[in-house]
């Protein structure tokens, strides 16, 4: 399974660069989907200015729009019912190929959404299978998240149950295979709960390199927390000014601490 732009199959779009001038869905109030779209455009050297943005009030409506011929692409996963519906429609479906060797493209994507990783898709609408894979991108999804005050026993018990009982649920959903231990990205963009780290140490998969990465993420998170608390003491009330000033303060705090200020 991948997270990708689903494109109408009658447009001969092969790579994200081919999306130039196409009508791309923008989902109001869904930053995650829109950021994914922006990341794919960036891979192809494009921005929203290079395409025709078409606003939709919801994710499902955008796929109705593709089928009706009102828009050409919308962000989704390769295994969703809307993707299957589009694949069965007269327009059909295609998935932009992300060349795993295109270093410049991956750098542009990472600058927009560093949580994406190269991924060979073997399951999805439009005939994607193990025999007909598509080079694309993905990230851990769905993600099990919790507040930092979650009891250690709960966090430990949850990760242990999910790993040790994997064979009991792996076939219950198309994306469930992603919970396999060998599929885990233990050096991703967010830190793990301490109890989860302890579990991975116990089963012998946690390394010194992973711990250094974890410590770096926690330090970066603390820098942002301190910056936020300082900023909120005298934050502007105007929404646009608030956003602009916070992003400036955020980038400055990260740079001063020696971190890359992504999402400037």
Summarize, please.
The protein has 264 residues and is an alpha+beta fold. Helices cover 41% and strands 12% of the residues.
Distance between the termini: 30 Å
Calculate the mean pLDDT score and round it.
94
Total of helices: 9
> Would you count the extended β strands for me?
7
User: CATH superfamily membership of the largest domain, which one?
Assistant: Periplasmic binding protein-like II
Which spans have pLDDT < 50 for at least 5 consecutive residues?
none
Largest sheet: 3 strands, antiparallel
Strand content: 5-15%
Radius of gyration: 20 Å
Please state how the strands of the largest beta sheet are arranged side by side.
Answer: 4-1-5
CATH class of the largest domain: Alpha Beta
Q: Sum up the overall morphology in one term.
A: globular
Measured as a percent range, the helix fraction is 40-55%
The computed structural class is alpha+beta
SSE order, one letter for each helix or strand: EEHEHEHEHEEHHHHH
Q: What is the number of domains?
A: 3
Annotated CATH architecture of the largest domain: 3-Layer(aba) Sandwich
CATH topology title of the largest domain: D-Maltodextrin-Binding Protein, domain 2
Protein name: C4-dicarboxylate ABC transporter substrate-binding protein
